[in-house]
Amino acid sequence: MTKQIRAGVIGTGFIGPVHLEALRRLGVSVTALCDLPDRVRAAADKFGIPEAFGEYREMLRSPNLDVVHITSPNRFHCEMSLAALKAGKHVVCEKPLAMNTRETAQIVKLARGSGKVFAVNYNVRFYPAVLALHRMVARGELGDIIHVNGSYMQDWLFKDTDYNWRLLPQEGGKLRAVADIGTHWMDTVSFILGAKIASVFADLGTFHKTRRRPLGEVQTFAKSDAKMNYASYKVETEDFASVLLQFANGARGNLGVSQVAAGRKNCIRIEIYGSKKSAWWCSEEPEMLRFGNRDGANETAVRATPAFGDGAAGFMDYPPGHVEGFPDTFKMLFRNIYAAIAGGKGERLFATAGDGHQEVAVCEAIMKSNKARKWTTV
């Protein structure tokens, strides 16, 4: 199935090669790569990709392309998504879908009328534990959901010399930590609960009011170098945030987000508290799903064992103890997307353009709430 579908990737930074690797693990033929003219040929040679383009519109004209993966900086997502749809391509776009809801609404409208599959890359949905929780909540195994607690913590921007284009509003958007990683948590919890976020109360904070920017390009997660030359600049995006949430099903939630949390490299924590029992999971221990009981012993379930449940069936390839983590979520997400592209009848679990629009709407409500210091409807 997948060998008959040909993909192209726009962007060769941190996340582009992640897409590429996952596609190849599935057997998808990656025929084209696009990036800046001065580096795309070297990247294409490195990865063994036949067609290299320095301009994405040229890539879209290639007859050897069915699906476009957009992994470019956020400000390009809207124009590239619209162009790919108009060129008759299926699209997988990195999050956020676009810079604001005016742009995302355009994408949603065109995607719905295109007859093509459009997916937003919220890969956290495809950790087996998340899929298991999604199924458990749908079956009522946790009871009515009372409230949700959690966080997404990183430390890759801990120092004032740590730098990436995401720090700049014109490149990544006015919201940074929440939009970059907090939206992953919010999409995941909305997916688990089967309910959208209806309103928010947010407090945003910036620890480094001024940062030092290296004079030269810096890749995502790259470490600062004492030999670099720096230029100071004012920081206009948040380093951390606290957000209270109200979901459409009546559940409440609270989320902590930080990109200056020393020692936390990429820690997602989700706790679901229901009227029958609770369940919690942490990405730093992706194989484990834990359950809490009022009157009995708490439980720990290992992935791919009976206690874990069957919610991730079809999205696990290895036995218990053979860890399936971050790279595997992309493979499983793309398995679901490409099955839909091929006309499969299975459940579509991936985030759609409409889901991407919803997350940007939540981000806009969070910014309004922080400014007004009050609850704000999404």
Write structural notes for this entry.
With 378 residues, this protein is of the alpha/beta class. The chain has 2 domains: 2-123, NAD(P)-binding Rossmann-like Domain (Rossmann fold, 3-Layer(aba) Sandwich); 124-325 and 352-377, Dihydrodipicolinate Reductase, domain 2. 31% of the residues lie in helices and 25% in strands. It has a 9-stranded mixed β-sheet. Helix 1 crosses helix 9, helix 6 (128-139) crosses helix 8 (177-193) and helix 8 crosses helix 10 (353-372). The longest helix has 20 residues, at 353-372. The two termini are 40 Å apart.
Number of strands: 18
Instruction: Indicate the percent of residues in helices.
Output: 25-40%
Main beta-sheet annotation: 9 strands, mixed
> What is the level-2 CATH architecture name of the largest domain?
2-Layer Sandwich
Describe the global form: globular
What CATH calls the topology of the largest domain is: Dihydrodipicolinate Reductase, domain 2
Number of domains: 2
Q: What is the CATH top level name of the largest domain?
A: Alpha Beta
- Which regions are unreliable across 5 or more consecutive residues at pLDDT < 50? none
Instruction: Tell me the β content.
Output: 15-25%
What distinguishing features does this structure have?
alpha/beta, Rossmann fold, Dihydrodipicolinate Reductase, domain 2, 2 domains, seven-stranded mixed beta sheet, 18 strands
